[in-house]
Amino acid sequence: MQIYLDTANLGEIREAARWGVLSGVTTNPTLMARETGADFQETIRAIAGLVDGPISAETVSEDADGMVSEGLEYAAWHPNVIIKVPATTAGLEAVSRLGEKGIRCNVTLIFNTGQALMSALAGAFVVSPFIGRLDDISQDGMELIREIAAVFEQNPGIATRILAASVRHPRHVIDSALAGAHIATCPFKVLKQCMAHPLTDKGIAAFLADWRSREAAATAHGATAN
Ligand code: E4P
């Protein structure tokens, strides 16, 4: 299982990159809109300078010609740029046409196994099932990951990787790994939550307190000896 960061915030990416766990970054138009005033090209190039791995840049055209032309432009920004297209028939055509030029694509907004299979057959580098948004409407996001993984497993010709997206909490990350996802893309908050546990904090506090009392005892012992 690899971990990507799901953000366009350079501060978050810079900090998480220092932890040594990041294999890539995903962005989308909503995440870009949160970075008020940031230029798309400059942001993608800056991310590529911070993380040595696939960086997803999403197209906003609704037709294949537009997606291909955006894809060609974005892919020229850095060799690690992956073109994100939606799970539509236009998106499939864009994946196929960009693939002929050696450009890798991430098919996003996947909500059923048919979309994942069609995207894989068109040559997608990764497919992004949105597990959190399925959970939000009382469907089982993890079951979708399991089903896609089973279908890909039974078709050895498929090299497409499964990227668990719309991750809401650390349990999603672990369950995605168990269900067969190759990658989970996480908001910064979820990445931090993955390393948080109250017993760790309590243990550190107790160790520090014991260490300080040991030092205090040693100092007191030294004063008495003198
Ligand atoms: C994935 O690449 C998307 O950017 C992302 O995971 C969307 O998730 P959301 O449901 O939190 O918007």
Q: Sketch the major β-sheet.
A: 8 strands, parallel, barrel
- Spell out which ligands are present: erythose-4-phosphate
Proportion of residues in β-strands: 15-25%
Percentage of residues in helical conformation: 40-55%
Unreliable residue runs: none
Adjacency order of strands in the biggest sheet: 1-2-3-4-5-6-7-8
Topology pattern, helix = H, strand = E? EHEHHEHEHEHEHHEHEHH
Shape: elongated
How would you describe the overall organization of this protein?
The structure is a single chain. The chain has 226 residues and is an alpha/beta fold. Helices cover 55% and strands 17% of the residues. It contains 11 helices and 8 strands. It has an 8-stranded parallel barrel with strand order 1-2-3-4-5-6-7-8, surrounded by 8 helices. Strand 3, helix 4 and strand 4 (81-86) form a beta-alpha-beta unit. Helix 1 (10-18) runs parallel beside helix 3 and helix 8 packs parallel to helix 9. The radius of gyration is 22 Å and the shape is elongated. The mean pLDDT is 97. It binds erythose-4-phosphate. Residues 6, 26, 28, 108, 128, 130, 132-133, 165-166, 185 line the site of erythose-4-phosphate.
